[in-house]
Amino acid sequence: MARLTLISMLVLLAGSMLMVQGGDPTLFFEWNVTYGTIAPLGVPVRGILINGQFPGPNLNSTTNNNIVVNVFNNLDEPFLVTWDGVQHRKNSWQDGVLGTNCPIPPGKNYTYKFQVKDQIGSYMYYPVTAMHKAVGGFGGLHVNSRLLIPVPYADPADDYTLLVGDFFNKGHTGLKKILDSGRNLGRCDGVHLNGKVAKGDGKDEPLFTMEAGKTYKYRICNTGIKTSLNVRFQGHTMKLVEMEGSHTMQNDYDSLDVHVGQCFSVLVTANQEPRDYYVVASTRFTRREVTATGIIRYKNGKGAASSELPPPPVGWAWSLNQFRTFRWNLTSNAARPNPQGSYKYGSINITRTIKLANTAQRVDGKLRYALNGASYVEPTTPLKLAEYYGVADKVFKYDTIPDVPPSDNTKVTLAPIVLNMTHRNFVEIIFENHETAIQSYHLSGYSFFAVGMDIGKWSPEKRMNYNLLDAVSRHTIQVFPNSWSAILLTFDNCGMWNLRSEIWDRHYLGQQLYASVISPNRSLKDEYNLPEGVLTCGIVQGMPRPPPFSS
């Protein structure tokens, strides 16, 4: 085997091909994106399938794997997929958002090439174009630890993916029309678990099977577009072990609030009477609670699942308190041999503070969502391409919003929003939510430390209550109504990175921005060159490629 590894090795692996050539293995995937009829809630809807599947196939990898995904767009509209949580070190070219990449035209393909460098954990991929995410094109993305790196729990009997989300029967074109007309989407029609809902008629096929006495890993992600969900296992507790790339302190929970865009890994032990049980997902912070179930079946078990479901929690204060129980496991290894806690983020001086306040306003009679008085508009030329080709001034301006919300936050301007971030600065970002709807924010290219969260408005003295020891390093954070959340991070990954609302109607109508991180050295040590074969569009189409970085 050692000889084969040094020369080359090809292995077919779950619909992909693995190639090792002396260095880190490369996984090859080919995805065909098509329309197809789906009916999670029993109503036929035109969905988006990947290789005929809804949800799409899981993308399984190991730390430092190189991943090549050739995406063929067989839709009649542009399509683009992002890898939510993958940091793409020095390589925002592969992030798959409209600020870095041209969408894949109908009938064309694009090949993503990226490395899951120094990462482990549970993530997901999904489309960022239009409202495609509402009807599919999403799936699980797993980064497993290398065999030589110890994991702080025993190997589970199996590794399951549970994708939960809200669903709207209007379909993606219907939802887009609603938003384009300046209206709100309203509430969802229901909730699904892996694209299904148990009918409870005794004929449901199980989502998962368990064997008595064994422990199973469930990777739970909220792939919905708008609604926080509470997840619980009938008759079983969940031991939280990982969250968006970080090993956590292993507390037990009867239920977990999973906000839009977030992923948790839990261990569930089959320690109950062998029969069927429900896994339950319920909407949170909605006027009308919607609940969906799926079947978990014990092998050789007898008996249907009880119709008495475990109740969901009430109110968002419960959820805030649950957030405060999440702690980074300081002694466990992550992707590297050194313990997670060896990075002392709490002792680094803050060099810039940015406070972002979200608002919902009407512009020319139509609904728009904004941050610090600006609502993002997608230019026809991706921001990163404009920057790289030296024509940024023709596409956007830097720092068009202040670092603090304006005193009159009711006026809204429509434009691309790009913050110019100094390379390697340690930055504090506060999200302030003055609305009655919960928010969820994701930052691509990074993980950050979620150090604080509370009701009311943020002020500098709130730093006294920051968790500067063992806050979880993650990529998505919720902000409760009339509350704030604070994160800390070092902007050390050069590129153009999207900070966006994961609430997809808000994202579509402007609640997002980009952070540009440029190395003063213009060196390959800090950022990769424009890849060969990259799609170009807008004003850079047909322009000669700029000279590459040489060192």
Automatic annotation (TrEMBL):
Signal peptide (from-to): 1-22
GO molecular function: copper ion binding; oxidoreductase activity
InterPro entries associated with the record: Cu-oxidase-like_N (IPR011707), Cu-oxidase_2nd (IPR001117), Cu-oxidase_C (IPR011706), Cu-oxidase_fam (IPR045087), Cupredoxin (IPR008972)
Keywords, ordered alphabetically: Glycoprotein, Signal
Keyword check for Repeat: no
Residue intervals of the Plastocyanin-like domain: 32-146, 158-300, 381-521
Superkingdom classification of source: Eukaryota
Entry's family note: Belongs to the multicopper oxidase family.
Protein name: L-ascorbate oxidase
Native source species: Gossypium raimondii
Organism lineage: Eukaryota, Viridiplantae, Streptophyta, Embryophyta, Tracheophyta
